[in-house]
Amino acid sequence: MMKPEPSIHRARYETFGGIVSSISPPFLAWVDKDFMIELGYEDSPLWKQERNYLSAPTEVHFSVTNQCGQGCEGCYMDSGKAGDEELSTDALKTHFKTLRDMGVFHVALGGGEAFNRPDFREIVSWCKEIGLVPNLTCSGQIMSEDDISICKMMGQVNISLDGINEHYTINGRKGDFKKADQAISALVKAGVQTGINCVVSGKNYPFLEELVKYASQKKLNEVEFLRYKPSGRGKTQYADYRLTQNMMKEFYPRLLDFSRKYKQEVKMDCSFIPSLVWHKPPLEELEKLAVVGCDGGNMLMSVKSNGLYAGCSFVENNEHIADIKEHWDSSVHFNKFRSLTKEAEEPCRSCDYLEICRCGCRAVALHATKDFFAPDPECPKVYNYHHKILE
Ligand code: SF4
Ligand code: SF4
Questions:
Q1: Are strands 106-110 and 59-63 parallel, antiparallel or unpaired?
Q2: Which of 10, 134, 166, 209 suits 26 as a labelling partner, its CA being 20 to 30 A distant?
Q3: Are both 254 and 219 inside the same structural domain?
Q4: pLDDT in tens, 174-222
Q5: DSSP single-letter state for residue 218
Q6: How far apart are the first and last CA of the chain?
Q7: Tell me, what's the pLDDT at 76?
């Protein structure tokens, strides 16, 4: 069978050339100036500029409501009741339009539980209409047939699942696995690109293999593993849930084994890069695959349900950003993320992987040290450095 020719959905200029997006097959590609010209784009003033960050994020994590009835102990958003100042339908639409105008390609919608918004269908339709690709993460605990039909408009839907059967939890809370399983089956049957988001903690670490096997049996697109972060309610139980040094070191080879054994695509989030580079993969391979660690305020940005912007959903930002277009370049908060490699302390400063890893996860470093620029204390190399352990 012939592979479909990608058709360019949207493109935007960058200092190096541009970024182009295709929906089928779905990808974003970083291309040079010549390629942009071949696509019919003319010279851009950006091509004469030098900067170390993008003209806009490629993906924005947008919490459309804080409302959620699950009450998970480790919820990184501290979700529960709807916030006092949640954005109205019109205000949400304006935010999405601004993001589209900036050149954002994808919005990862979440909550709280996004289906709690009565206008959710309208919001998702709006994203599609203006050319933003909406993706969704949800619990799979309250999905109706109508919700499944909304999901058909999404690029991908990921269900939060930290284990299966008797090991099923969402962010530390026991839930009804049957409901999540039924939601996954219904999504797959409806032809929705479906995946799993699994938060990896010291509690579910021993049971990750059965999750990958389950995903493979269900023919899911991917399993994305996210490191447990001390954020929101997750801060209170961080000491019990954090990964041990052995788990951090073993995580990457275990993941590779599971992926090969069950022929299942797996991903790890940006905060897991220190576990990957501990195994010293060739730098040039990582560069070719565009592997990148802490990238808030660059490829990534987040918005809370009250319209507050931050570099990443797991890091608080108290700086008031009234106009994101205007503040993208000048925000102190975003510029701190962009200065990570310049401000790096030892052992990150002399680490071969600094440009890729970018000092590990800020959410973990900030919680443990109160210093935004501190090396991630859970990185095995950082741990050894602080404990004077020779490698
Ligand atoms: S703080 Fe950085 S590494 Fe951690 S989750 Fe956010 S973007 Fe990723
Ligand atoms: S030493 Fe720093 S830059 Fe190197 S892998 Fe660890 S956290 Fe990342």
A1: parallel
A2: 209
A3: yes
A4: 778 999 999 999 999 999 999 999 999 999 999 999 999 999 999 999 9
A5: T
A6: 50
A7: 80
**286 lies in the same domain as 197:** yes
Domain count, the chain: 2
- Do 23 and 160 lie in one domain? The reply is no
Query: What is the rounded distance in angstroms from the CA atom of residue 202 to the CA atom of residue 146?
Result: 36
Q: Among 227, 343, 351, 372, which residue has the most ligand 2 atoms within 8 Å of its CB, making it the best to mutate?
A: 351
- The token pair at 373 is 């620029």
Write out the residue range of the structural domain in which residue 178 sits: 59-334
Domain contains 71: yes
Encoding tokens for residue 216? Answer: 């493979």
Is residue 147 included in any domain, yes or no? yes
360 lines ligand 2 (CB under 6 A): yes
- Tell which atom from ligand 2 comes closest to the C-alpha of 358: 3
Residue nearest atom 6 in ligand 1 by C-alpha distance = 312
pTM recorded for the entire structure: 0.94
Ligand closest to the CA atom of residue 59: 1
Do the domain assignments include residue 158? Answer: yes
Residue 381, ligand 2, Cβ within 6 A: yes
Residue 104: closest CA among 75, 82, 131: 131
Q: What's the rounded Cα separation, in Å, for the pair 46 and 53?
A: 12
Residue 17 amino acid letter? G
Whether residues 42 and 111 share a domain: the answer is no
* Order of all β-strands in the sheet with 17-22: 8-14, 17-22, 27-32
Residues 42 and 122 in one domain: no
